[in-house]
Structures
1.
Amino acid sequence: MKVSRRALLKLGALGGAAVALPLAPTFASFGKDQPAPSPLVPRFTRALVIPPVIRPVRRTATTDFYEVTQKEARVEILPGLQTTVWGYEGMFPGPTFRVRRGREIVVKQNNLLPDGVVVHQHGGVTPADSDGYPTDLIPPGGSREYVYPNGHRAATMWYHDHAMVKTGDHVYKGLAGFYIVDDEVEDRLPLPRGRYDVPLMIQDRRFAADGSLVFDPLGHIGVIDGDVLLVNGVPWPRFEVASRKYRFRILNGSNSTQFKLGLSTGQPLTLIATDGGLLPAPVDLPAIPLAMAERVEVVLDFSRYPIGSRVILENLDGAGRLGQIMRFDVVREEPDDSAVPATLRPVESIPESAAARTRDWVFGPRATMSASPPVEWVINGREFDPNRIDATPRLGDVEIWRIKNATELNVGGMDHPVHIHLVSFRILDRNGVKPGPYEDGWKDTVLVPKGEEVRLIMRFEGDRGKYIMHCHNLEHEDAAMMTNFAVV
Ligand code: C2O
Ligand code: CU
Ligand code: CU
């Protein structure tokens, strides 16, 4: 019987700690120990691609109507090789939705893929029947209309597949795109806009020699670490910039890989927004951690560099090629009338005294003989059941949710980026300490590292109905680390 060393390493089970895993017979078939590396890709040769903004097919006085067809496509990601992806409109990433706060849109999704799909707009305040509940499948050949009221303040959000037990596989194949909300408050700010406002979706992937995607979830530990970094679907792109300021909206769209952003020049990143929109004030940071599904917006000023300079966006968590994400080549001068104002947008601090109650959620592994490796990912000791409601906050109530990442079973455990649908929250503290500046704003996803406890405060507003909270390591989500709450 052979246990994949890589899976155990990812699980944190090795490295001195006592390993007390019960060995199930299913272990024999578990994992391949040495995956072949992806075909070697030259870095910084292909230009960054910016996903096109999708246009409505018709408009009424109140609503913009869009239509999207999900289908397979053959695309060239690695030079000279074809990769089959699943794309919204056949694109990887999908087209960008750019919407106005308060302006409703309706998106008809047609499914030409060979599997049932679900679309979730991550970060939005969406009625439950349009939120992309994991069992609300659009069957192959079918279609469904999603209604998005867009009541959320301006923010960088995204949309992606959410099919029960298949989310990791579907997103890995390409079903993800940006969803950006604009509003009047941001309109009034002099931040870089238009072609100087650029979304960047960072993802790791692994490819076979023929160019096909290798999806190996290592049982349910988390997809095998990629050895190719993609930005908007292009491996290690280069982006020609002018010597001026740019706004970058950065999303970690990976299944199970965390990043830590930094610049090769040591220049700090000027953070202006988190998941749920602008911060009260910009903050300069030498490094910004970014877990799966989290977004940050940064302004980078290239005017400090002479023409001809090259600045690499780095992953300070990665080694070798994985330590680099993309390159900015400063190639021309351009006037710049943009600015980063000293104050951006007030962010409400909800006082703890406003909370009607505190709920406890323990994310952790549970020993089992029926999975390989023999742990399951559960919340409060129970796996996801679409028919069980685990919390019923009342509409309008403020609640504190205390989320603990338990490491049990003598295995080191894994980090869990916890995402709550419907609400934006503030982080009260991590292990009793105030959150770092990179997450001290509106959030919908929070990394809860192994052994840590994070307290969140949030107001349940927008809609009544059944919503989910889950781990955004998509393989954990698919392996039942998800729970229902119903706003009543
Ligand atoms: Cu980004 Cu429930 O997901
Ligand atoms: Cu979501
Ligand atoms: Cu997890």
2.
Amino acid sequence: MRDHRGMSPSATKPQKSSTLQPPVSKELRQRWAGLVFPGAKTQEHFSPLDGSLIASLPQSDASDVDVAFEKARGAQQAWGGLSFGQRKAVMMRFHDLVLEHQTTLLDTVQWETGKSRASAFDEVADIALTTRYYANSAEQHLRPEKRQGALPFVTQTRVHFQAKGVVGMITPWNYPLTLPLSDAVPALMAGNGIVLKPDAQTPFSALSALDLLYQAGLPEGLFQVVIGDGPELGTAIINNANFVMFTGSTDTGKIVAEQAARRLIGFSAELGGKNPMIVLDDAPLERALEGAITASFSNAGQLCMSIERLYVHEGIYDRFVPRLIDEVSKLRLGTAFDFSYEVGALISAEQLEKVQAHVSDALERGATLLVGGKHRPDVAPFAFEPTLLTGVTEDMLLCRGETFGPVVAIYKVSSDEEAIALANDTSYGLNASVWGSKTRAESVAVQIQAGSVNVNEGFTASWASTDAPMGGFKESGVGRRHGREGIQKYTDVQTVATQSGMNVAAPKGMGAEAFTQAMTKGLRLMKYLPFRK
Ligand code: NAD
């Protein structure tokens, strides 16, 4: 039987590695299965590390999704009525449980993705960071807000943030622990229920975390998980949801947007990128080298904020690029349930094919390979070497398409203006990184068309600034996660205006013309009033 990534046990040969551990426990498998909506069919899921069976899980169809929403809606009534303090208590317990049970979470992430342990830990850390942030800040972001009323003193106007109801969440495979959970936490803190459809290749990390969320006190039924076909379940989710949180490719994001528009429901979409890094000639060399490597090869490049285009100023090119090649060639590629490798395997045969296609197309059309470039089945079925290329031109797939793998194209630039123009010459606008002296790099940063720009950092500084919005310009997304924006989107914004003493109309006995004249005088005077809420 083949699973969602087209794998069967015979599709791969188990690696002779002493570092791989025995399959997950029977108890954990049962707990996972108990958290998935019970569909009529089941599906076996295999690990990309060695083709071994991880577990079998129930599969849902569209009618199951309808029932999952009913159940979540039922549980949401009581949850939406709790105070922020009561919801915060659940989230803070969840925060502690995530850190306490991190070994199971890290193992699970590695089993189903093949990523390195360090990249898996990024997910655990992100959940802790985001959960603490929203547990502490939700009340401040969502408490009723005083706004300027129609008439001074006699109109009291407040804005209320009401929970949407049940949020539909659709998530990809690359960060299977943090993307579902870190976007769910603000939705839950705002008083919503959730129906989640994780990518069918990677359901287990979200289930392990959900198990902890229920242990922390989340009411039964509030957070439903359905697993199955993307288009079928995705459509059913959009047809039922009060709001859709989608993370995935730009192509699928456009389908989601069309479907949400037909129902006139809100949605937020975190989509693809082809992210640039600019190294100016006054960049701190050692830190820039380290930053370029982390930003390009974390999670084997399967990261939406990952750097795929590197623009290096000619004044530093000859010092920077040879050192980068040297450092990249030393990166350890491997699979182990410890921290001995910096770069892990790719997720699937499909992902490997895409990465190989980009590299071989570029080489056939005249690009130069500086380091890497090879599939490494001796390491893991879908392992691919960290790769640097130069001479990438417009006619190559690699030039504009998101590779989503450990492959970076390097370009020499001769001015800040050229670097900015090239960095912006893309349909995407998710993340960017600029290295150089502070003032110069910051001045370049604000000219980059991207939702987040990291100065003297690759992506972590902006991503981990949880109080600040994160999202895409252009075809990289709609809406934002993190910060005030990342929780208010899960609410309907309601204005309640209370009028005291007099109506906003002509007083009794005053004709329309006299009222108009009085209003005109009043409007002229109001110009001198300061803005005050
Ligand atoms: P994808 O679009 O193929 O799939 C994402 C999710 O959408 C999966 O759960 C899938 O089953 C579901 N889906 C598929 N067809 C659907 C449909 N018709 N309607 C609704 N849902 C459907 O993306 P992927 O290949 O799994 O993920 C990689 C992409 O995600 C990359 O482009 C990456 O840049 C992007 N990504 C973006 C962010 C971000 O924060 N901007 C984060 C992670 C990944």
3.
Amino acid sequence: MKLLVLNGPNLNLLGMREPGVYGSDSYDEICRRIAGHAAARDIAVDFAQSNSEGGVIDRLHACIGAYDGVILNAGAYTHYSYAIRDAIAAIRLPVIEVHLSNIHAREEFRHTSVIAPACRGQIAGFGPVSYLLAVDAFAEMAAEG
Ligand code: DQA
């Protein structure tokens, strides 16, 4: 199984960005942790990050025929990008929405995910572990067949 872990805007600044909310692990450290977790489950993972809506959409399109699924943290686009939601629906691949923080326990505007209806499921609130749980969800779904 091959997955893309796709991160949206501002997630490249993890570690220095609002550490009280997002923790002190850097983007690279989190990617290494995900890679190790996936390798232990015989899952190949690639990583991509874009600060633009079009960049996220282009990466999603490029997943067709290249990946079995996507772990997506769309950042703030989660809350208002119908274009990303449509891209998720268009690629017809399972996409798991993840968030480091519990978006439902934060400001009102973060309670809505417009991408959630197009995603296989949502994992939020576990810090970097949110990504590891998404890897596990893909592993379990594959085991179930
Ligand atoms: C986030 C939550 C979003 O509301 C925010 O805009 C982010 C990060 C998270 O991982 O908790 O950029 O997706």
4.
Amino acid sequence: MGKIILTGDRPTGRLHLGHYVGSLRRRVELQNEGDYDKMFVFIADIQALTDNADNPDKVRQNIIEVALDYLSVGLDPSKVTLFIQSMIPELSELTMYFMNLVSVARLQRNPTVKTELAMRNFGQGVPVGFFTYPISQAADIAFCKATTVPAGEDQEPMLEQCREIVRRFNTIYGDVLVEPQIMLPTNKVCLRLPGLDGSAKMSKSLGNCIYLSDTAKEVEQKVKMAYTDPLHLRVEDPGHVEGNVVLTYLDAFATDEDFVEFWPDYKNLEEVKEHYCRGGLGDMKCKKFLINVLNKRLEPIRLRRREFEKDIPEVYAILKKGSEEAREVAAKTLHEVREAMRINYFDDAELIKAQAEKYLNA
Ligand code: TRP
């Protein structure tokens, strides 16, 4: 069986460096390696609505932002099918069938949902759609029989739940669907990039992000404010690497070539860390280097974004074409699903004949 790659993002804002190191960078590599039968990247607007039901315009506005981010990092619509979740009604249908294969208690145990519930304040109570979104996410993955899902660590419980649902489906109805595997970033620090303020995660709601579309000036200002080591008061003081956002970002981004280009005093990050811990290396020097490294990475992304921004109707056309392609795949899978579930009444000549005979002989 071939390799089918699928992943996606909620359209609740522009994408940031956490998305980039956690998944986007890997997607582009996977795309360019070409070792797959099919690759899908989609905008999860239905999922975004599960906690934004009263703010559909936010979702609507951010579809194009996420699409521009995708194209600007180098996802190529001739290689990857880019689509919008809600444009594939089969996903909602599959979600309904999956609902019967999951218990309320199992959903309550999902650690990602637990964390998100703690972070959100659902005044009117938790929407059923939010509570059940892991089921909808399982349908997102299963509709195309995805084998491989490049995503961050926070998506692991979602993948586990998807595998359980698929297993249950196949056990009851026969082998139709495929159990996917998550593909985590290989670099440890990329599993979960901390926010600029030192909190555990870069996240729009915490306001601690560097966005892919930030200008060079914005990147500079943000990095200058980044959290480092509160005990490192004077340059001579020994510094700490643990929890130091600037050094963590360098772990995620800096290459030895960057040192040759921007900071030839050191060969690599190990030497920098060693000096920093010993004392005598100031935060500002590290920050200046990080600004150079980030802007070098982000500049081609910004330039590509600007090109696509000049032809927004074309970006929507790309999403429309991708959605049509995805829908064909979904229709095929749902046909198999209905057949396996024995709810394909009108296609089932045997059924009609058997029922007819039953009543003729009555
Ligand atoms: N839950 C993901 C996020 O919060 C988005 C998503 C929805 C997704 N469906 C998916 C990711 C399927 C991977 C596979 O960003």
